[in-house]
Amino acid sequence: MAAQEALYVYKGTNRQGRPVQGEIRGANANVVRAQLRRQGIAATAVRKKPKPLFKRERAVKPADIAQFTRQMATMVKAGVPLVQAFDIVADGTRHEKLRELVLAIRDDVSAGTGFAQALRKHPRHFDPLYCALIEAGEASGTLEAMLDRLATYKEKNEALKAKIKKALTYPAAVIVVAIVVTAILLVKVVPVFAEVFRGFGADLPAFTLFVLHLSDIARQYWLGVFLALAAAALAFREARLRSPRFADAVDKALLKIPAIGNVIYEAAVARFARTLATTFAAGVPLVDALESVAASSGNAVFRDAVRRVREDVSAGVQLHTALRTTGIFPVLLLQLTAIGEESGALDEMMEKAAEHFEASVDHQVDNLTALLEPFIMSILAVLVGGLVIAMYLPIFNLGQVI
After folding, report:
1. Those residues with Cβ within 8 angstroms of residue 228's Cβ, 6 or more apart along the chain or in another chain
2. Crossing angle, helix 128-140 and helix 143-184, to 10 degrees?
């Protein structure tokens, strides 16, 4: 197995005798010196580049895997040997963790391990569906086409995730800002007014008294409230990770959220159609393809439904009939599935269904953002404006008395 390369910094002189310095990768310092000599550089100092003490390395995300897949598909299509393609991808990325991952796969493939088998050593980044499709491509001699299909699948999936995040992030961010601003006003601003009101010698309006009471509570218990919210968020995250039952309940609840639930629903339908189209077009038998679809559904409701569909299909039921009995798939998907089964073009029909629902999600997200803006502004106005009115009411009343 090839040695793991590291980043080295060097100083030296070029052929013209001018001082040069830079960075280069190599297995060790001697290899780096030899590489520099071939480039006409006489190295005077070569040392491994130290890692920053407090730098947090960026993790490899699904979007990085999508980019890696597209790069590999492009190079294999261009006739670049597989091992050389890994080297090119590794040299072209600044993502250290991704580079280490690609080089580890390259080392395994160079040692004679199959591409799919090398990927299976990294289950955090390459799911069973990805590995199975690569294995099918290796076995059939269609690795180029399979990589291209996988790249498209990953890119579409990431685009779909980005749309859902767009729908959820904006309102969540604005609400968090509104809560923070309200807390600052209650803790820092309202007490200043409270000192002024003590010298009035008159009864304060009920609304003002209510806000002053809230301010007292916020000042006394703000740390406890903050810690309780942080603990609740952490407990929710851990419960979802550790308890499949709780995670399933959350997935079901997400589908029932007004407006946002429909976006999540159609995104799940689009993911189902896209995954089925990709696996079926790759030559994976329908029953096995449905197992992969269930595993990558991203929602417990659809996962359980697809597994029931798989059982029905295994028993000889047609796919569109099995989908209809679950009661959760839209009519358009059922119709396209029936047409695909009758015409023998199920992968094409699923592709069309995926494109339709992906476009629908995109449209709904844009509409949702436009609709939420005035609603969120209203919440901000009520929170911040209410505090301002509560503070100025006694001043207005005092002016009327005078």
Report:
1. none
2. 160
Give CA 190 to chain center in angstroms: 40
Please give the chain's pLDDT, 402 residues, in tens. Answer: 445 567 788 888 888 888 888 777 777 888 888 888 888 888 888 888 776 655 556 788 888 999 999 999 998 888 888 888 998 888 888 888 888 888 889 888 888 888 989 999 898 889 888 888 888 888 888 888 889 888 888 888 888 888 778 777 777 787 788 888 888 888 888 888 777 777 666 677 788 888 888 888 888 887 888 889 889 989 988 888 888 888 889 889 988 888 788 888 988 899 899 888 888 887 888 888 888 888 777 788 898 999 999 999 999 999 999 999 998 999 999 999 999 989 888 889 998 999 999 888 888 888 877 777 787 778 778 877 888 888 877 777 665 544
pTM over 0.90: no
Query: Cα(65)–Cα(153) distance, rounded to whole angstroms?
Result: 11
**DSSP string of 17-48?**
S-EEEEEEEESSHHHHHHHHHHTT-EEEEEEE
